[in-house]
Design a protein that fits this description.
The protein is mostly beta strands. It contains six helices and 36 strands. Among the domains are: 308 residues, no CATH class; 100 residues, Immunoglobulin-like (Sandwich); 92 residues, Macroglobulin (MG2) domain (Immunoglobulin-like).
Length: 745
């Protein structure tokens, strides 16, 4: 969101205050961006993730990451600009409860912290949510100046964003999200939440508005998935919701091994040969598939999702249908029995979790959500039953699942939203609840693994493989996509599928490999984050040389890097170049550890003549250890190629000379009426005079480039006339040179 748009929205919200309650003008809806790994995401201090929820036309473009994977994916194809590979229509968290002694749906209170709306979002700021703070911290092992970070914490993420907000329900939410750059762990962001019943209902912690016990409290995490914006825009010229993201091309899935919900694009206009949204232009499909440009030939291969790492069992309500004095919940009325036992309750008389594990349409308007998904009168998604005829079909026939909220596989095609609900809880003033989950994205799912979802007629089905046939306009482009073309290089390690990423998320959170099937309720309430890492990438500097080459330099600091879980000693560096920020990356050279130049720094010279003067490229340098482990590309720099400045002032040339209208030096843009001055030192002054000696223009050159451009205007902004012109170049050291050029119009 631009600054102007932000203040426009803020002004609108202020006007809504009489309807929605009090809001301090010091409270500002702000966001920070996770940009360290391959998964980029925007998080707000009002609960939203990605953006405020929207499925309409206004949701077809974005200037901030919306669960963007791969990162830096905006591009231009056939003259059209595309926002890139974004994968959600919005996300957030919901809270609901009743005050003690005030049961019933008509007295239920709600706080929707983002993820609420339909074609356009509903306002949450100042109505249900009151921002407190947001802060982004960097824990990078290498600082921007190239030195090692003396405060680096090896047991913490590289990027941490902490935000907090009060809610109209009196629960204050603190969310801490973490991201890494290491290739095995860079496709995830882990979120830890704390919900504290503070009684603050307006964002002013100095005053407490309520302390009455909350009954039947429930927490809901809600995501709207859509893999991927770029594929849908190339196919439909819009991020198509009706008939595309909703009851159309994508399907929802549930992998109970990792408590993983994710979506995949399985068809286009009912055509399964167009799963994954192959590039519709056949020639461009083959080019993308072979080179990896624009992410490859499949434009929507993403499987975005989230895996629950921990949910709180503390403060769960005791439910006793036989003893009203002990019973704490209105949900007692919906209990089912099996063989005389209430199999939905655990041995302590609490509902087995999750309460609900639901897929539904992308319409999340507040009236719908209040009535359906997290009230004690209905476990909306149903439960797994011990007498189910379909549950034993797979090896997950585990009695621990009986009585828990079931995944509604028949609604897999709805797929517009996925929510996970826990509760009901009884919360006294001061009580806290904790949760953790990981946003994860992979190149599809584990091929052939039988999990729930994907089809509406069968509960269990194998997930599809992207090594599949692709048919465009009746022509078979490939019988086996991955066999013929492989993975794009943004899939930068052997952790490829969303299933594998989810496993790594559990490994990061637990500090060790998980035991499958995982049980989040048995996990610790706080992550361990003892992750093995490779040697980090160095900070780099780029410069143009006087011969028109690009020089990449970096210092030796990473040679001294230590870590309790370092995966191997430094062996070498790899230098990459790309036309786009997302790749594909071409390795243009390797430098062995210790092989430095006479200045005791590392250097590589890019002499590729196909990279023309005036063009821009992206560069990155990675570190590689002795075991072949490679760092992430954390030092990506976009660099414009030019000719470097001279060390000593000599002859300076004006080009072209003579200058004929519309034949001028083009520089780095498309303007064709510029004159270029060549042969300049880093710092000098150029003065242009008319034939009569009148000063026409003064140009200050202060850049390490060999040339500078002049747009043929006088110091008063007038266009110069035909004639002979002289120029004088001087340096601060007193050096001087002269020349002349002719303008013909």
């Amino acid at each position: 969101m631009t600054r102007n748009k932000f203040y426009k929205v803020f002004s609108m919200l202020v006007l809504l205050l009489p309807a929605y309650g009090s809001l301090s003008l010091a409270q500002i809806r702000e966001y920070r961006i996770h940009s360290r790994g391959m998964l980029h995401e925007t998080v707000f201090n009002t609960g939203e993730i990605g953006r405020a929820w929207m499925t309409g036309e206004s949701g077809n473009k974005t200037s901030v990451p919306l669960f963007e994977w791969p990162a830096r994916s905006a591009n231009v194809v056939d003259g059209l600009e595309y926002s890139g590979q974004h994968n959600i229509i919005g996300a957030g968290v919901y809270i609901a409860a009743n005050f003690d002694g005030m049961p019933g749906k008509d007295k239920r209170i709600f706080s929707f912290c983002g993820g609420i709306g339909a074609s356009s979002p509903e306002v949450t700021f100042g109505r249900w949510v009151f921002p407190l703070n947001i802060e982004r911290k960097e824990n990078f092992p290498v600082l921007a100046n190239g030195s090692l970070n003396p405060n680096y914490n090896p047991d913490e993420a590289e990027e941490i964003i902490t935000s907090s907000w009060a809610t109209s329900i009196g629960i204050t939410v603190t969310r801490t999200s973490r991201a890494w750059s290491y290739p095995d762990y860079d496709d995830m962001i882990i979120y830890e939440y704390e919900f504290e019943y503070t009684g603050d209902t307006d964002g002013n912690p100095a005053t407490i508005e309520q302390t009455k016990t909350l009954k039947d409290a429930m927490i809901c995490f809600n995501y709207g998935f859509g893999p991927s914006m770029y594929g849908y825009q190339r196919t439909y010229q819009t991020w198509k919701y009706d008939g595309g993201l909703y009851r159309g091309d994508q399907r929802g899935y549930w992998d109970s091994d990792y408590w993983l919900s994710f979506n995949m694009d399985v068809q286009t206009n009912l055509n399964v040969d167009l799963a994954g949204k192959p590039e519709p232009n056949k020639a461009l499909f083959l080019q993308n598939a072979r080179t990896g440009e624009n992410g490859g030939g499949l434009l929507s291969p993403q499987a975005p999702g989230y895996a629950m790492l921990y949910y709180d069992l503390n403060h769960l309500a005791i439910v006793d249908p036989l003893d009203p004095a002990r019973n704490e919940s209105e949900a007692v009325s919906i209990l089912r029995s099996y063989n005389g036992e209430y199999y939905e309750l655990d041995e302590q008389g609490r509902f087995k979790q999750p309460w609900s594990n639901k897929i539904s349409t992308g319409n999340t308007n507040s009236v719908k959500m209040m009535n359906q998904f997290f009230n004690p009168d209905n476990r909306y998604s149903g439960v797994y039953a011990a007498n189910s005829t379909t549950w034993p079909e797979v090896p997950h026939n585990d009695p621990r699942w009986y009585g828990r909220g079931a995944y509604p596989y028949r609604q897999s095609a709805d797929a517009g939203q996925k929510n996970f609900v826990t509760g009901p809880y009884t919360l006294k003033h001061g009580d806290k609840l904790k949760f953790a989950y990981a946003e994860v994205c992979g190149y599809g799912a584990e091929p052939g693994k039988r999990i729930e979802g994907g089809q509406t007629l069968k509960q269990w089905a194998p997930t599809q493989s992207w090594d599949r046939k692709v048919v465009i306009d009746g022509e078979v482009m490939t019988e086996h996509y991955l066999t013929d073309f492989g993975y794009p290089d943004y899939v930068n390690s052997n952790v490829r599928t969303v299933t594998q990423v989810a496993r790594k998320a559990f490994t990061a959170y637990l500090g060790q490999e998980p035991v499958v099937p995982t049980w989040p309720e048995s996990n610790p309430s706080k992550g361990s984050y003892k992750i093995p890492i490779p040697v980090p990438a160095p900070a780099i500097e780029l410069a143009n040389t006087a011969l028109g080459d690009v020089k990449i330099n970096w210092n030796r600091e990473v040679e001294k890097f230590t870590h309790p879980r370092l995966m191997g000693p430094l062996s070498k560096f790899r230098v990459y170049r790309s036309k786009a920020g997302m790749g594909p990356w071409k390795m243009i050279g390797e430098v062995v550890s210790g092989k430095v130049n006479n200045s005791n720094i590392y250097e590589l010279l890019d002499t590729d003549t196909d990279f023309k003067i005036g063009e821009s490229r992206y560069y990155a340098v990675t570190s590689v250890d002795a075991n072949g482990n490679e760092s992430g590309k954390t030092n990506i720099i976009k660099f414009a190629k030019n000719v470097g400045s001279v060390d000593k002032l000599g002859k300076v040339y004006a080009v072209p000379n003579p200058f004929v209208q519309k034949s001028g030096f083009q520089g780095t843009g498309d303007v064709t009426d510029k004159i270029g001055f060549y042969g300049l030192p880093k710092k000098c002054t150029i003065r242009v005079f008319s034939y009569s000696g009148q000063l026409v223009e003064t140009i200050e050159h202060d850049t390490p480039l060999y040339s500078t451009e002049w747009f043929q205007t006088t110091k008063n902004g007038q266009e110069i006339a035909s004639g002979v012109y002289f120029f004088v170049v001087t340096t601060p050291e007193g050096e001087k040179t002269t020349g002349k050029f002719i303008v013909i119009k």
